[in-house]
Design a protein that fits this description.
The radius of gyration is 28 Å and the shape is globular. The chain is mainly alpha-helical. The protein has ten helices and three strands, in the order αααααααββααβα.
Length: 326
């Protein structure tokens, strides 16, 4: 092979190699960062491989998708997915990797009827063995009214299938499953939707921004059962817990909690007031421990990640140098 042939073969192979490298880079960043939300659709993130989630966004243009990934969005997408050490090219490669998962996923055309098979002469068959009929196990019932993902009710892997639909949030006391519907006193209670009307809205929990409601003076939690004039002792101290990985660090604001609760509600039965003495993990929270004693029950659910993971990580000099070298 002469020099010209070698040069031509090398030039042809460069685009192929760069495409493979970009795909591997995109998958790597997706597995490490993006998949945390995009695998299951947390906070409305378009799910990997779900054409219905991605097609409207692809139609708006790749430039818009790149901008959202690089700069973040008000709906909960953090800048670079929270991994600020990732380069712009890596983030774009991750977007390309997710978009590639739904390319060509348009609705299939109606299938043409298959031609009828040619008749085959039947051969005499031996007497078939008797078949014992067995009842198939009954499939578990699926409550289609609680499926909020838009997927089929039979798809047991559909995300958020157990969450209440918007129309069934904050039901009246006689229908909430807590109060006795046969008690006349239950019917005298105000329905939450009527009571919540003038309060500031939120996208979390029961859709009310309770902290803002206190700040605007629209609600005034009663601090003492017998003394309506008793004032809370608000403790203004933020505790920052560093989180491993790409997620932003957690900020625990004492002031917002002590506007509602006395310190004795949490200390020392739930949290030991000593640095490093509390082992907190998402697993423990989901089991109803630590923050999970309230969050997910009477406070906003843990699916609202950014309400707690609110402090961007500081890029250390070594990380900055490594990011600049890419």
């Amino acid at each position: 092979m002469n020099f010209r042939s070698i040069l031509f073969a090398s030039l042809v192979s460069i685009p192929f190699a760069s495409g493979v490298f970009a795909a591997e880079t995109g998958k790597s960043l997706y597995d490490k960062t993006c998949g945390v939300c995009h695998a299951s659709g947390i906070a409305g993130a378009p799910r990997y491989g779900n054409a219905a989630d991605w097609q409207p966004r692809i139609a708006a243009g790749m430039a818009r998708l790149y901008t959202s990934a690089l700069k973040g969005t008000p709906k909960g997408m953090p800048q670079k997915g929270g991994n600020l050490a990732a380069s712009d090219s890596e983030v774009k490669a991750a977007v390309d990797y997710m978009v590639a998962s739904v390319k060509g996923a348009a609705a299939p055309a109606a299938a043409k009827p298959a031609p009828a098979p040619a008749p085959v002469a039947a051969k005499p068959a031996a007497e078939p063995a008797p078949v014992v009929a067995q009842a198939a196990p009954a499939a578990p019932a699926v409550d289609a009214s609680r499926n909020t993902s838009g997927a089929s009710a039979a798809d047991i892997n559909s995300f958020n299938r157990l969450l209440k639909p918007i129309g069934k949030r904050n039901p009246p006391p006689a229908e909430d499953g807590i109060h006795d519907p046969a008690n006349d006193g239950t019917l005298a209670l105000m329905a939450p939707l009527a009571a919540y009307g003038p309060l500031p809205k939120s996208f979390a929990g029961n859709r009310i921004n309770w902290v803002k409601a206190i700040g605007e003076g629209k609600i005034n939690p009663r601090w003492d059962r017998t003394d309506p004039n008793a004032a809370p002792v608000v403790f203004d101290l933020d505790i920052v817990r560093e989180v491993k990985g790409s997620m932003p660090d957690v900020v625990y604001p004492h002031n917002r909690h002590t506007e509602w609760l006395d310190c004795s509600n949490c200390h020392t039965g739930i949290f030991i007031p000593q640095k490093g003495a509390n082992a907190i993990s998402m697993a423990a929270i989901l089991l109803g421990e630590k923050c999970g004693v309230c969050h997910g029950k009477v406070a906003f659910p843990v699916s609202e990640c950014r309400l707690c993971h609110s402090k961007k990580k500081e890029i250390r000099p070594a990380q900055a140098a490594a990011a600049g070298a890419k």
